Amino acid sequence: MMRSSVRVVVGAVAIGLLLPASGVGQTSTYTPPRTRDGQPDLQGVWQVLNTAAWDLEDHGASLGVPAGRGVVEGGAIPYRPEALAKKRENFANRATLDPETKCFLPGVPRITYMPFPFQIVQQADKVSFLYEYLHAVRYVYTNGNPHPEGPIEWWMGDSRGRWEGNTLVVDVIHFNDLTWFDRAGNHHSAALHVVERYTPTGPDHLLYEVTIEDPEVFTRPWKISMPLYRRQERDIELYEYPCNADLLEQEWNNPNSTFFEKK
Amino acid sequence: MNRRLLSLVTALAVAVAILLVAQQPAAGQAVWARDTPKLPMATTWVAVKAKLPPYTPPRTPDGVPDLQGHWGGAGGDNNSYLEDHEYVDRTTPAQESFVSDPPDGKVPYTPWALQKRMEILRGLARGWPGEDGTRLHVSPGSFCLVYMPVFSFDEQEIVQKPGSVIMLSDESYRVIPTDGRPALRQNGRFWLGVSRGRWEGDTLVVEVTSLNGKGWFDSTGQFYSENTRMIERWRLADANTIDYEVTIEDPTIYTRPWKMNFPKRRVGTAPPGPRGVSIASSLPRLESDPYEKEMWERGCFEGNGPTVAGVRSLGYKWFSGVTPPK
Asked: Is A205 part of the contact surface with chain B (CB cutoff 8 Å)?
């Protein structure tokens, strides 16, 4: 147990050394209010306003997909050649291959930029992310525990948080290799290591920066960034997007469904 | 239950679903000896709480009763069978009814609804007496779906913020506004409904409306409808016990409002009593596990594919709710 945890920590430190600039992001002069526990207060209902859920890279419009500028720093995702081939195959078959079409948990960071609101709730021991999509919940523990010993393959990974100034930094490992980053087929392996940074830049904005590292799939770590917007509606609250329930009911009642064979 | 081990075995939740079809127990599911004394529920709790001294709960900095912490579920037979029953099989030991009112412990269905409820019970195909072999419906709980009031019957952490009470579990959450905002009035329908809370003295009162009527109260077809309103009452009976009561109102399927009532114990403080034997919790437990209080991913739906396909292939129909007569 201890040995494995130490290995994980060393790995995280090494990546930090390799990427002195990538995690820093824009400096913000905004000073957020504090919670009763003394943390920067990021609480509220947030949502993106972009097209990253369809494609992290630059893309034109297609049926049901708005055009958009990519959110990848440097423009292109640095795939290894064989991984790029797989991405292209994924893209060609995305209507059926994307695990999101089966209503599985979409992984991190994808769930952040799905077109649904989410709520941040802070306590002394954890920052909880409540997502409208699938009514999913993710606990980012800030209690000092290291990542638990692996191997563990979780859809949303294991999230450990810390505060750097006003920024919540979340280190996420222990993923499976079944989720995609977007509908365009951008993919990863179970070796994925994600570092998210949530920085308040004003009362109603967070800068969301993510460093993605997976030596089995990418030639180097790469980064995405985007603003998160506080939902302004007076009575904003999360409802449900019970994708799994709706899909099951639809397919259960369809005598010709092939959904259950594929699963 | 050791949460770490539970989480590491990703297929575990799948096994629970199998129980709803056959009576083979599986990892994570408690099994009970035939001679287990009848498990306490509403009747015992109503008698116990009548003798408790008055309790004044602590207050949050906002001045409302402080219900925060990790709270256990109803316990007993894991919400297998809602009304009073004798031993049925090893996952359904003898247990008192959840129903505290009416005093007979029965859900007061209208004649039409009772006929529907008995039809589902006879069609369960769990190998119980009185079944007719039709394989009509299985519990929506077989498919890893989260709904009311079962969310409240299970374990959760309560967190209070100004203007809301938040309930967190290892697979979902509720955010209950207490700021007086209106409920939804039109077409929205949800598994968890829409919750609105208010404080009445020391009690958190939560009205739940906009339910989709697709959930069950137990695993044997005790149902509600789209017209159902649930009024929950969460009150500290002592420092480590929440007196949980929920009133169910729906004149389209019940002859009168009715109530369920049981205690929820602060995790780690449950009093001794008969216990089922769970395969997962019988595994050796780590000393002073630093992760013990953490809630870890279940991925229940994601790992449930083969079970769902298997149940469907047996001919069960999806339960899409009932349509009461006008």
From this structure: no
